[in-house]
Amino acid sequence: MFRLFPAAVLAAVLLASCATVPPPDAVPPAPSTGDPSPTPFSTAASLEGLPEGWRKYRLARFKKFTDYRLVKTPDQGVVIESLADASASGLEYPTSFDVHEYPWFAWRWKVPKMVEGTRNSLAHVEDSPARMVVTFEGGRDKLPPDEQMNYDLAKSIAGTTLPYATLMYIWDDTLPYGAVVQHNMSSRVKGIVVGSKARLGTWVDEKHNLLNDYRRAFREDPPRGMAVGFMTDTDNSATVASAFYGDIRLLKE
């Protein structure tokens, strides 16, 4: 059962949200081309900075930032390399899309090794070498009472508006492929296991039906998607991990 401890809940809420939202003037505009997919890394003209529309996000002020940088690989072109050292933060691309119109979520990634001793179903060792993250719009009134308290607390103390729901695709070698994992602090954050030791050290093409996965995880129809991104985190295990992320696409079919 979800338990609420007022003295420490803000940190838990920010962690559970998987993304804090910056002030409105820092949010890049929604794509004007009609394609809600993020700006691809492969087209970057320079390895400095981030492609247009991408931004860093942190989970809480006391969390160290994971390092993300553009690198040129011999076989994949320009991608993002992440390096987490007892840290937890990510990159995200704010957008807006109808999940019924763009039900397919596709990307490429490579993980050199697992984070040993971690397990996404246990709070004190909940780390992953790579996570793909999708957040969804929605109002406070649709949330259950305990989640409304989280929503109100985060907004009043940190000025943060939490996503209505967060769906992650994660690496975990202790759970079967396709397993749905509920975050230990929030019923509005769910993970789906897609990566394990059997897939280490090689580029893996992923394509998942976001519409069906959301329905399976949350037992409801999804609202509009509001951002996509990814994260490499080792804050709970205080270890080191790395990953590589290629272009990300939202597809109609």
Could you tell me the radius of gyration in angstroms? 17 Å
Helix-strand makeup class: mainly beta
Largest sheet: 7 strands, mixed
- Global outline: globular
Oligomer: single chain
Q: CATH class, anyone?
A: Mainly Beta
Reading side by side through the largest sheet, how are the strands ordered?
1-4-11-6-7-9-8
**What name does the CATH topology carry?**
Jelly Rolls
What is the tally of helical segments? 3
Question: CATH superfamily, please?
Answer: Galactose-binding domain-like
Give me a quick take on this structure.
This protein has 253 residues and is mainly beta. The chain is built from three helices and twelve strands; from the N terminus they run H-E-E-E-E-E-E-H-E-E-E-E-H-E-E.
Q: What's the structural blueprint in terms of helices and strands?
A:
Blueprint: H1 9-17, E1 55-58, E2 67-73, E3 77-85, E4 88-97, E5 104-110, E6 128-136, H2 145-158, E7 165-171, E8 180-182, E9 189-195, E10 204-209, H3 210-218, E11 225-233, E12 240-251
Parallel strand pairs: 7-9
Antiparallel strand pairs: 1-4, 2-3, 3-12, 4-11, 5-10, 5-12, 6-7, 6-11, 8-9
Helix pairs in contact: 1-2
Q: Can you offer a commentary on this structure?
A:
The chain has 3 helices and 12 strands; from the N terminus they run H-E-E-E-E-E-E-H-E-E-E-E-H-E-E. The protein has helices at about 10-15, 145-160, 210-220, and strands at about 55-60, 65-75, 75-85, 90-95, 105-110, 130-135, 165-170, 180, 190-195, 205-210, 225-235, 240-250. It is about 15% helix and about 35% strand. The strands form 2 sheets. It has a 7-stranded mixed sheet with strand order 1-4-11-6-7-9-8, with helices on one face. The model is unreliable at about 1-30 (pLDDT under 50). The protein has about 250 residues and is mainly β.
